[in-house]
Design goal:
The chain has 444 residues and is α/β, with parallel strands linked by helices. The protein has 15 helices and 14 strands. Strand 10, helix 9 and strand 11 form a beta-alpha-beta unit.
Length: 444
C-alpha cells in the first residue's frame, strides 16, 4: 500500500440496482452505513441481464466510473463466483494501490476451489456475512484478516397481508417458499418443499403452497430445463401456485406477510435471506438445520430439519465438480421431518403463534445488532494502522488470480475431451511448442 492517505469513507462496489439477493444485500448495508454517518459512493456493477436498474433508491450516490470513487475503502460485495470475474476484469480506473481493498464475499459450501481462493487473496481484508461463511473462509484462506458481519433486514412498518393482490386463496393455510433460480435450483431445493407439503397434506383442500421464483429470463438451456421440471411439479397439484411476477421489495414483503409459514429445505445457504425476512415478519420457518441460516436460527425460534451431508452431483451447475473442479458436499434434508413440522404448524395454531412471536423477537435482536455494522469500526482501525499490514504485491496477486482462473478453465476444457482427443491435443501442443512457433515468429 502506498503512503498516500485517502479520506476515510466507503466505495461500495456491487449489484446496487439489481433485482437479486445480492442487490438487496448492498442496499441493506448501505442503509446501515448512512445511519452510521459514513461517507459513501457506489459503483453499480451491471452484469446481471434483465435485473440491473430495477431499484434506483441509491442512485444519488452512484458514480459514473470507478475512477470517481474517492474514499479509502473499496468494499466489494459479491458472491465468490462474481469475485473471480471481478478480479479478472477490473473496472477501468479502479484505484487499488492507495486503498484498503475489502471483499465482502458470499459462498455456500465448506470448500473453495483454488482459483476462487486466489481471487479472494487479492483483497486486503475479507468480510463474512454469517458464521458459516466465516468458518469456510478461515479454513481455506490464511494471511488475510477475516471479519464477521451480521446481515441487517429492515422491514417497513406498513407491510400488510394482501392475498387478493397476489391471487392467493383467502381462507386457506398457506405455506411459502421463494428463491432466485440463478442461485441454483438444486441448492434451493424446491422439490423437497413440494414433497414435504404433499406428504404433510395429502388430501387437505384447506392447505396451499405458494412458490415465488425471481426470474426475468436468461441463464441458458439448463436453467430453462430446471424451471420446466419445477413447473411440472407444480402442475401435479392444484393446491400449488407458482408466482413469477417481478416485485418491488415492498410488494415482495407484502407477499411474505400474506402467508402463514415458510419452508426452506435448502441444501446450502450462505445466509438464508428469505427465511430471515420471514422471521422478521413473525412467520414460523421450517428450515434445514445447516449452513448460513444457523447464524440466526435455533431450536427455539424455528422448526429445524435434520439432514445428512451428501456429495454434490458432478454435473450440478455452479457447485458440482464439473463446475468447481473439486468435490464438495451439501445437505440432504429429512423430508418426513419437514412434513411433520408443517402438519404440527397447521394442527396447532397456538404453537404457530408462539413460534412466530419468538421468531420476530430473536430476528429483531439479530437485526439491531447487524444495524451497527461494527465491522466498519474494525476496518477503520486496520486502515489507520495499514503500515503494519504485510507488504503485498498487488499486481502480482492479480496476475496470479487471472492465471489460476485460466488454468482451471483449461483443465476443465481438457476434462471434456475423449482419450483420443487428449492425445491429439497433446501432440499438437508439443509440435507448437518445439516447431510450429518458429514459422509463426518469422511470418510477416
Amino acid at each position: 500500500m502506498s503512503e498516500e492517505s485517502s479520506l476515510f469513507g466507503l466505495n461500495v462496489i456491487g449489484f446496487a440496482s439489481a433485482n437479486v439477493g445480492l442487490g438487496n444485500t448492498v442496499r441493506q448495508f448501505v442503509d446501515c452505513f448512512h445511519a452510521r454517518g459514513e461517507k459513501i459512493r457506489i459503483l453499480d456493477i451491471n452484469t446481471i441481464p434483465g435485473n440491473t436498474g430495477f431499484d434506483k433508491s441509491l442512485e444519488e450516490w452512484f458514480v459514473l466510473s470507478a475512477s470517481d470513487l474517492p474514499y479509502a475503502i473499496n468494499l466489494s460485495i459479491f458472491g465468490a463466483t462474481h469475485v473471480v470475474d471481478f478480479i479478472s476484469n477490473l473496472p477501468d480506473g479502479l484505484q487499488f494501490n492507495d486503498r484498503l481493498n475489502v471483499g465482502f464475499v458470499w459462498w455456500e459450501l465448506t470448500s473453495i476451489p483454488q482459483y476462487m481462493i486466489d481471487a479472494m487473496k487479492v483483497f486486503d481484508v475479507l468480510v463474512a456475512g454469517s458464521d458459516f461463511i466465516h468458518s469456510t473462509l478461515s479454513n481455506n484462506i490464511n494471511g488475510i484478516p477475516i471479519l464477521r458481519a451480521s446481515h441487517p433486514v429492515s422491514i417497513s412498518e406498513d407491510i400488510r397481508s394482501n392475498r387478493k393482490r397476489f391471487k392467493l386463496p383467502e381462507n386457506r393455510f398457506i405455506a411459502f417458499m421463494g428463491f432466485d433460480p440463478h442461485s441454483n435450483i438444486n441448492r434451493k431445493n424446491p422439490y423437497a418443499a413440494i414433497e414435504a407439503f404433499k406428504l404433510a397434506f395429502p388430501d387437505c383442500p384447506d392447505c396451499h403452497l405458494a412458490i415465488k421464483v425471481n426470474y426475468s429470463g436468461g441463464g441458458g438451456i439448463d436453467l430453462e430445463d430446471s424451471l420446466n421440471r419445477l413447473r411440472a411439479y407444480v402442475d401435479s397439484d392444484s393446491r400449488i401456485q407458482l408466482i413469477q411476477e417481478s416485485l418491488t421489495y415492498y410488494d415482495l414483503l407484502c407477499l411474505y406477510a400474506s402467508c402463514d409459514v415458510f419452508i426452506s429445505l435448502h441444501r446450502a445457504e450462505g445466509l438464508g435471506l428469505v427465511p430471515l425476512e420471514a422471521m422478521r415478519l413473525g412467520k414460523p420457518v421450517v428450515a434445514t438445520a445447516w449452513s448460513g441460516n444457523m447464524s440466526f436460527m435455533n431450536y427455539c425460534n424455528a422448526c429445524l430439519v435434520e439432514s445428512n451431508l451428501i456429495p454434490i452431483e458432478a454435473s450440478t451447475p455452479t457447485y458440482g465438480s464439473d463446475s468447481l473442479g473439486i468435490k464438495c458436499k451439501w445437505a440432504e434434508p429429512d423430508i418426513k421431518q419437514a412434513a411433520a413440522w408443517l402438519r404440527k404448524l397447521f394442527d396447532d395454531p397456538e404453537f404457530r403463534l408462539q413460534l412466530g412471536l419468538r421468531a420476530v423477537t430473536d430476528s429483531n435482536k439479530y437485526h439491531e445488532q447487524a444495524r451497527k455494522a461494527e465491522f466498519i469500526d474494525e476496518l477503520k482501525v486496520i486502515w489507520e494502522n495499514r503500515e503494519l499490514l504485510p507488504k503485498r504485491n498487488r499486481g502480482l496477486l492479480i496476475n496470479q488470480a487471472r492465471d489460476s482462473k485460466r488454468r482451471f478453465e483449461y483443465e476443465k476444457y481438457l476434462s471434456k475431451m475423449s482419450p483420443i482427443d487428449k492425445i491429439v491435443h497433446k501432440v499438437k501442443k508439443e509440435l507448437d511448442r518445439h516447431l510450429l512457433w518458429r514459422f509463426r515468429k518469422n511470418k510477416v
